[in-house]
Predict the 3D structure of the following.
Amino acid sequence: MLIPIRCFTCNNIIADKWDPFIIMSNMEKNKDEKENDNKLDIKYINLKNNDKSIEGKVLDDLGLKKYCCRRMMLSNVHLISYIN
């Protein structure tokens, strides 16, 4: 799927935030991996911890506050590299 240009619900432009979202979330994940040497310990959702996920923090930093825009970023599957 291609990167969405606008949010389907509120028509807000989100395409300019895609690359920073991917870069910042990968940087945060790599930083957490360096702190935690166990490669098999994948951090998804910890029900005992109420902190936001890495992706949630990055979306806050990018200024995406509406849940419809956040959905567009989180649910997009980047398949264009596999299609070529």
Observations:
- The CA atoms of residues 25 and 54 lie 6 Å apart.
- The mean pLDDT is 83.
- Residues 1-34+51-84 form a domain with the Arc Repressor Mutant, subunit A fold (CATH 1.10.10.60).
